Amino acid sequence: MQMSTDSPRTRSLKADLLERLPLLVLAPTVLAMFLYVVVFSLWTLWLSLSTSTILPDPSYGGFGEYVALWKSKRWTVAYQNLFLFGSLYVVGSLVVGTLLAVLIDQRVRFESFWRTVYLYPLAISFIVTGTVWRWIFHPQTGVELALQDMGWLSAQFDWITDRDMALYVVVITGIWHASGFAMALILAGLRSVDGDLVKAAQIDGASLFRTYRRVILPSIWPIFMAVAVVLLQFAVKTYDLVVALTQGGPGVSTTVPAIVVYDLMFQRGQIAQGSAAAVMILVALALVLIPYSLYTSWRRRSEAATHG
Amino acid sequence: MSSNTTRRTWTVTALASLVGLGMGAAHAEPKTNMLHQWAQGSEAAAIAKLGEMYEERGGTWEQTAISGHTSNTLAKLRSDVVSGNAPAAVQLKGPEIAEWNATGRTANLDDVATEQGWDDVVASELISVMKPTGNWVAAPMNIHRVNWLYSSRKILDELGLEVPKTWADFNAACDAVMAAGKICLAHGAADWSDTTTFDSVVYGMDIDLYRKAFQEADLEALRSEQMAEAFAQLRKLVGYMDDGINGRSWEQSMAMTMDAEAAFFMMGDWTVASANAAGYEEGVDYLCSQTPVDWGGKGFILNADSVVFFEQSDQDYVDGQKLLAETIMSPEFQVTFNVAKGSIPSRTDIDLSEGGFTQCQQQGLTDLKASVEQGTLVRSMAHNMTVPQRFRGAMMEVITEYVADDSISPEEAAMQLADAVEVQQ
Amino acid sequence: MVDAQARIAFDPLSTGGRTRRLTSRTIVYLLLGLFSLYYMAPLVILFMNSMRPLDDIVRGGFIDTPQSLSLRYWKEAWGTFCIAGTCEGVSRFFMNSLLMAIPATVISTALGLVNGYVLSKWRFRGSDLMFGLITLGVFLPAQMTLLPWAYILGSLGLSNTIAGLVLIHTVQGLSFTTLFCRNYFVAIPDDLIKAARIDGAGFWRIFRRIILPLSPPIIIVTVIWQFTGIWNEFLFGTVFTSGANQPITSALVAFSGSGTGVRAYNVEAAAVIMAALPPLAIYVLGGKYFVRGLTEGAVK
């Protein structure tokens, strides 16, 4: 090591700087994120309590916009859809992704082919996804027509035009788009499972199914959580998919909150009410994320306690 | 606009004008950037023509075309205004003109208007929209008629039916069509198209109801018995449609009618432009008439596209706006644009027998004049020409839900309609 | 490294008798095959329809045996289709998208790598909180951030520029890239780092000598994710550009917007495939890294 020619004071300053370096390096991102997450959210909150209509307006307006928002049928349907679609989409993608990952994990041939087939939908934008699947789902241009042309004249597949079933069409399309991502991460996880655990289960005579259920899948629980986070943010932000697929219809049955926010803020010039809707989306997120983070920190603490 | 931007702009303008003075008379280079929704099809071609005419007159033309039914153009407008770059020219209509005027950021067009004599040639019902506080703020590009009924010539001839004049006639005709195993009313369900149809129903059944409910958003009118009756008629109409209305576009519905798969189609006059482009012929494939009215006489539900100008600090843009306003109101542009769009010019002094206007369009102008005379002219709620968006949006939600859900009774629907508006007041 | 031996030894399908093995394998392949239909259907349909004449599509629906095929709709979509009065197809918008997506991807990935390194190996007081803050960024709906970004771009003088879009996508991408990289680097044993520090290596040296060499898999994953997300994004691309510098996602909407005239489904399909080609190519070529990279990352 070269002998330093710095004075003691410079040396300690340098040492200080070195210690702070990680923080300094992280600082720009943290500042940007503070602006993006905290400031934007607070600004939206403030707007929701203002009298803004076609342009932002700083005067205080009270909670009236929230009241008006919740009295609208389209909003209550949209909010319900957020939870319904969100849970079906996240759980469904995880289930399908796990199934596909387990199948591929059986040392099948042509793995890169299967993997590419299941993964490529993620490359397709939501607008295109929604448009193409609408062609497929619409009874007069898609599957129903094809089946009828083939001779099965009473074939029916018109979920997309049915108020009660249309949301499931959105779920199926969403799962098509994202399950490949779940599959990829879960497959990676499956491959990194501790071999000893598996051997032990085998020695104990556990069946294939049991081994997966009791040993392998639980050990990659963190991966499920990571995938769930990514899926959840897709679900919350869903806009283009629904607009391209059903335009929120029939009626308002497949509307989602992001559509209401955009429509209120920009089409109808009711920025305050749109902001209120956005705040409600954040509330829904908090309802999911806060319990989750409490749970993980509890788990971490209890693990530290048992290992400590 | 932030004070920094304003200060910067003033400095630049001041310096520029000093330089200009130093170089002698400043050379005006009018330019513009127009924001609008007509990104494709014949309308895009028509706007391209506007660009050509503009450049011929010495201006530099730029445009931002964002497809989709205005929500994206409005998003861009708002964000542009918020970021301090209000666009030079924007396609805006109806009550939005008044709303933006109230923000004080719109430009005053009175100079151009007086020069060109707009007050004399523009239809009076339209003038009030273009001059919300007494001075010209927007240049009207056209007049659309929304209450058109298109009938399939083939089906009418086949079944020996006449074009229905009243709603009772229409229902009877549809019963006959349905009995013969055909679809009576072609329709593509969407909030705006459902409301377009409902506009015609309410208007045709009771003009006063239309005025009170859809122009004034009067709560009593909205929850009245007459409104429930109108909803009942709408329910009947839904019964005359087929099962595939969800996800069908209006062009597909039009094609259904003109291909004789359905008997009738209700839509605005932009249908004519589409029909022409697709090769259908008036009188052969389709007949055009007004949607049924129960009070005898000519009815006209009006919709108009217009361009609003926002105040600019750059003199070139200011000059560019004047030039654009002149170009838009020029007979040359009015003819080209309206022939392409299926509408009629906003100037009433243009002869429609020349220039390529179809029979239906010429009929539209005659009906407009008759309607003005009879005092039956109204503006369209469905197409954002009457009540503010917050009421219109709320009403459209109720109407489109009603069309999609046949468990909602007409009386309930009327109640919901009034409640939806009340909540937004 | 993954305990490869033990893992391979567990081949569930090799247990049981020969018939059982055959049945199990058949079922597996059958299931895989059926699922592939579900996944491939839209792409095949798009592809077919991009080559069929329009009245064929209108008459027979989207799922139909094509009467004739032609590549001219592709040429039309690329170079001659009229969007907003200019008849140059989507080529120009394609370039705009590249100009926007590449810088944003590179910058956000680079920053993500460094951030991930800090948050996983240089914990300090509050670093967990900062990580939480950064992660929260992935959840914000775009519609809510539109107006605030408008203010910011306006005051920076970046409205209606591609640079402005690069800024937005970089900041919004930081959440994802940091999340991915940090979760990946966590698996690198702390002992390696400790040993290096004892040897006198500093912050950047460790980054260069230890972290970066192990990073290629996560770099690829992050680049794929970012590029795809930015390329396919519509809202900001449309609102914060104008006229000539709009990205390809805006141009695509012009194919399907409600205007007069019949919707050219075939040209639209061709344009859609063209627009999807860069992300698609990346996924097809880089897909194996998604899995392999994450497997190799589980360094023991």
The number of distinct structural domains of chain C comes to 2
Could you state the order of secondary-structure elements of chain C as H and E?
HHHHHHHHHHHHHH
Class per helix and strand makeup of chain A: mainly alpha
Helix coverage percent of residues of chain C? Answer: over 70%
Run of helices and strands of chain A:
HHHHHHHHHHHHH
Distance between the terminal alpha carbons of chain A, to the nearest Å?
A: 38 Å
Rg of chain C, alpha carbons: 24 Å
Q: Report low-confidence residues of chain C grouped into runs of 5 or more.
A: 1-10
The major beta sheet of chain A can be summarized as:
none
Radius of gyration of chain A: 26 Å
**Total number of β-strand segments of chain C?**
0
Under CATH, the homologous superfamily of the largest domain in chain C reads MetI-like
The CATH architecture term of chain A is Orthogonal Bundle
CATH domain class name of chain A = Mainly Alpha
Q: CATH homologous superfamily of chain A, by name?
A: MetI-like
What would you note in describing this structure?
The complex is a heterotrimer of chains A (308), B (425) and C (300). Chain A has helices at 8-48, 64-70, 73-104, 111-119, 126-137, 143-149, 166-191, 195-203, 208-219, 221-237, 240-245, 257-267, 271-307. Chain A has 308 residues and is an all-alpha fold. Chain A has one domain (49-307): MetI-like fold (Orthogonal Bundle), CATH 1.10.3720.10. In chain A, helix 4 packs antiparallel against helix 7 (166-191). The radius of gyration of chain A is 26 Å and the shape is flat. In chain B, 53% of the residues lie in helices and 12% in strands. The longest helix of chain B has 20 residues, at 3-22. The two termini of chain B are 29 Å apart. Mean pLDDT of chain B is 88; it is low at 10-25. Chain C has helices spanning 4-9, 18-49, 54-60, 72-80, 91-121, 127-136, 142-156, 162-185, 190-198, 203-214, 216-231, 235-239, 248-256, 265-296. Mean pLDDT of chain C is 82; it is low at 1-10. Classes of the chains: A mainly alpha (308), B alpha/beta (425), C mainly alpha (300). Chains A and C meet through helix 1, helix 3, helix 4, helix 5 and helix 6 of A and helix 1, helix 2, helix 5, helix 6 and helix 7 of C.
